[in-house]
């Protein structure tokens, strides 16, 4: 299994991009708005599925440095 360490800056940038993907998905599917699903839940689930599929089919383990976690929690907390 290949292990990839994602640096803080890249993890932060990916988090912002994934957030905007979640916003776009929520705007596109009205059922998510009807049930008041937050964008942060949508993008978190989207990112988790993508990382899971990469690990499952490509046999790559993705590890993130956790220094930016606190700042990302501020952005995505609502």
From TrEMBL:
<dbReference type="GO" id="GO:0015813">
    <property type="term" value="P:L-glutamate transmembrane transport"/>
</dbReference>
<keyword id="KW-1133">Transmembrane helix</keyword>
<keyword id="KW-0472">Membrane</keyword>
<feature type="transmembrane region" description="Helical">
    <location>
        <begin position="45"/>
        <end position="64"/>
    </location>
</feature>
<dbReference type="InterPro" id="IPR004445">
    <property type="entry name" value="GltS"/>
</dbReference>
<dbReference type="Pfam" id="PF03616">
    <property type="entry name" value="Glt_symporter"/>
</dbReference>
<feature type="transmembrane region" description="Helical">
    <location>
        <begin position="9"/>
        <end position="25"/>
    </location>
</feature>
<dbReference type="GO" id="GO:0015501">
    <property type="term" value="F:glutamate:sodium symporter activity"/>
</dbReference>
<protein>
    <submittedName>
        <fullName>Sodium/glutamate symporter</fullName>
    </submittedName>
</protein>
<dbReference type="GO" id="GO:0016020">
    <property type="term" value="C:membrane"/>
</dbReference>
<keyword id="KW-0812">Transmembrane</keyword>
